[in-house]
Amino acid sequence: MSSVAKTHVVPDRDPAWLGRVFWFSTAIVLLWPLVVATEFKPWLLFDAQSRKSTWQFVKDFFPPVVNQEFLLLVAKETWRTVATATAGMTLALLLAIPLTLLSTSALSISALSGRMAPLPFAFRQVIRFTLILLRSVPELVWALVFVRVVGLGPTAGVLAIALTYGGMLGKVYGEILESGEAHASATLMRNGSGRMQAFFYALLPQNAAEITSYTVYRWECAIRSSVVLGFVGAGGLGQQMDNSMKMFNGGEVATMLIVFILLVAFADRVSSWLRKEIG
Known about the structure:
Layout: H1 17-37, H2 48-59, H3 68-103, H4 118-136, H5 139-150, H6 154-179, H7 183-190, H8 195-229, H9 237-246, H10 250-278
Helix pairs in contact: 3-4, 3-6, 3-8, 3-10, 4-6, 5-6, 6-8, 7-8, 8-10, 9-10
């Protein structure tokens, strides 16, 4: 009994290469005007003047300042940074939660019939536009505004984080609630349950882990943002770092950079632990 050997013909070239070349060329054509508009010239980093300036800048960082008085000051400003981020996130939650409940269509009784009534639809669009307005203004811009209103200090940073992050949280919370399974909440409302009962007994339990995970992640981002806000006078570690940079004290800047890296690493570990606990 003879057996016929099956041979596999290997193509000489990838049949999808034309498509890859097309999309790669399209990306280059689209990105090139952006590169020109931004005057992106990375080779300037390697010319003689740039190398000299970079070396001088890095050399000033060593050795870091580690005297007790300065470390106590850094510890105080670090705590203020964490407090600013946490207080801002707390206010953001107080802003985002009611706006989320008012904007999500998953809690609309009129939508149970298949199409939301015009007035509730218009009201939800106004709330969603408010969320867009809040998150479209960066926290740095809000901080500049509040520094002029309430003066220098952490209060401006807290308010800036509260407004921008309130808009972000409200948007994402709404998307999470509307993308989840809405059968349970719809059944409760069809049987006479109120919106809050449908939220607490149907929507929240099935989406609590995802909402909590995103909230913890945003708290981690708020810590980084609070440092940046310090450069415009919103207090904390960023403001102290800005003062040291203006005084050309690279050693103090290096110490604060190390502390900031450790702070972000700590926040990341806390964030990971919380996600694991609620996962």
